[in-house]
Structures are given as C-alpha cells and as structure tokens.
Amino acid sequence: MSTQVSNGSPPQASKPVILDDGMTIDTAAGHAKSGRVPLEAFTEWLSERDVPADRLAVLLANGLLKPADFAFILEARDRRSERKGAAKAKCQLSKDEFLAHAKPITVVIGDKTVEVKPREFSTGSFGWFHSGKAQIVVGNTTVPVQVGLNLTAIGSKPAA
Length: 160
Hints:
This protein is of the alpha+beta class.
C-alpha cells in the first residue's frame, strides 16, 4: 500500500525519510509507504508526530511540504511539548487534613443563600459540593433552576 503525497511538482532524487513510527516518505517517488495517508491529511498527520525538524526540512526541500505547512507542524509540536512539560499541581493538604479543617462556604445563587459543604468526591478528590434548586429572575420572569456546584481542590485526586 502506498499513498501519493506529492504536491504536484516533481520531487528531486534523495534518500527516503524514515519517520519516528516507521513510516517511510520516499521523496524520490513522492509517496508514503506503510499505511494510507491522504494528501489532504498529510500535514495534520505529520503534526501529530514528533518528526525531527531536519526530516521535515527534507520534505520541504523536496516539495512534499509547503512552507506554511512546515511552520504549522513545528508550532503543533511546540504546543504539544508545552502541554507535556506542564507539571501537575499537587494539593498542599491531605484528604484527612482538608476534611478535618475545611469550613462550609456561603454562596448566593439568585435569591437564595446556600451553604456549600466540604466533602470527598467519588473520584477520591475533595473540595466543596452543593446540589439543590434556586430561582433566577430573568427580566420579569422567575426561572427555576437546578443547582449543581463542585469546587474541587486542584491536585487533590489521588494518583492512580
């Protein structure tokens, strides 16, 4: 199975480019071997992989990528690495400390003041929770609403 990925201009003869997952881009023949990657999805397909910039440059030089697509792929890779590098926040309190010391929070919803109580959620995380009904005035009409309020302490979910 091979899929044409050429942009229409005849590519220059060069060595095949082997990507990180074993996909080979034969720049001399202008097609991808191993799997089907339609031309219109090729840029997006590349943007989802960590293809080294030098290999992308070969595709660019051989007419298999447009300059704008090359930039798009590099930006997508940078965004992915930023997300991977973000450290998860860890809650400074243990569940037992939180439940022992957290106080209810008073919240006003429409015309009703509610007390939002601390609790442990079914996921193992903890925070404050309230469920109930309230009324909100919209123009001249009172609209009854169902209230579900979760305030989850960031980083309180236990590691799996």
